[in-house]
Sequence to fold (145 residues):
Amino acid sequence: MSTPTTLEAPERLRAAGLRVTVQRVAVLDALRAHPHASAEAVHSSIRTTLGGVALPTVHGILGDLTGAGVVRRVSLPDAGSALYEVQDEFDNHHHLQCVECGRVEDVACAVGEAPCLHPSHDHGMRILEASVTYRAICSDCERNK
Fold:
């Protein structure tokens, strides 16, 4: 899964019709470095370099980035809050989540193009997204049992 480098963040923001700000670039960089991060984790990550940024500001930026399709919001079972990752327009993946420690990893779609799952009946709706979460126990948690 590819993610933008620091130099690509401003271009991604402009292409999405968003104004380039230091805070938005910092949020993208934090998500590039730590995919599947909560808003709180992103805030903690950028607070060291942007001391004045508040958690509600990070929530707002994540909302703007998600609405513009630059970032994807990932809702997983047993996750304390929504997680975020940089959206790649050519990416079609699912998630593998450890039920013990909550670790999340990307898993490539086995077959097909997005959406790679089709319901038995769409009830007249146009499918925009299909989501699969594989729930497992990671090897570290398995060893500690």
